[in-house]
Amino acid sequence: MRSVKPRRTVLAVPGSSDRFIAKSRTQPVDAVFLDLEDAVAPAAKAEARRRVVQALTAGEGWRAGLVTVRVNDWTTPWTYLDLVEVVGQAGAAIDAVVLPKVSSPDQIKALDLLLSQIEANHGLPVGRIGLEAQIESAAGLLAVRRIAASSPRLESLVFGPGDYMASLGMASLNVGALPDGYPGDAFHHVLMEILLAARAHGLQAIDGPFVGIRDRAGFLASAGRSAALGYDGKWVLHPDQVAAGQAVFTPPAAVLERARRILAAYAEATSRAGGAVGAIVVDDEMVDEAGVKLAAALLAKGGQSV
Fold it and tell me: N or C, which terminus of the chain has less Cβ within 10 Å?
């Protein structure tokens, strides 16, 4: 299994804008992705590649722990050049490549093979650059379990709400917001399918963007739904969403402290000295092996050792 860093907040940065790229360097997010896809007009694709290469090789670095690049999807004429030019010239500064609109495992396998050749031809460690697969359509969701198993480079599965909503014909223009008229959570099924596929293969699950950059309540509601399910993070489109995103996907200090107490109490109780007890009571709640696993998972999500 690949060792991956947190992705509680992933900042989208248009690859065609020097100003936005410069501003992204100091943002307190876990990851940034320099976008060559939807945020770049077709006529600006070639120039965006040049700007992204220049930014990656400038030597300035990012505050974020992860720097990734979103290329164009395989149905476009740009994917090959995105990889050959950007990874070929700046691969040493790229932690992962994000492939959008993934609809089959073959698309991930093709990207993996091409990346391996580029790495080998440019003296980069073969296999170091990770992959993130964005699930954005009915076809992609139906194939998500096979997509999750398609490459050892994979680090995360990402929900793409905008194209997904269009793929299904949802009656809404607000990307990431629940459509009106449906009494339940219209995203629950897709979020759970992506989460199940990710966890079955040791991958992170990342929620997609909420486009209402001034709608703090809407963003918190969107992020809160996926965080409650167990998602690891969410894409953010504006600095105003960063602090809220970090908070939502970081377990509260009180929860982490209780998790530590559960682990300590259980370790003592199950030892020979403690009587080898298999179930204990902590804070008036029964705790057994399942509860211990949950506590350990929360500590890991909070970036703390078990």
Answer: N
- DSSP code per residue over 55-116: HHTSS---SSSEEEEE---TTSS-HHHIIIIIIHHHGGG-SEEEE-S--SHHHHHHHHHHHH
| pLDDT tens, position by position, 85-102 | 999 999 999 999 999 999
pTM flag (> 0.85): yes
| CATH 3.20.20.60 boundaries in the chain | 9-248
What is the distance between the alpha carbons of residues 235 and 221, in angstroms, rounded to a whole number?
14
Least confident of 185-189, 214-218, 261-265: 261-265
Place of tokens 């194209």: 163
175 closest CA partner among 289, 12, 32: 12
Task: Count CA atoms closer than 13 A to 242's CA, side-chain side.
Answer: 15
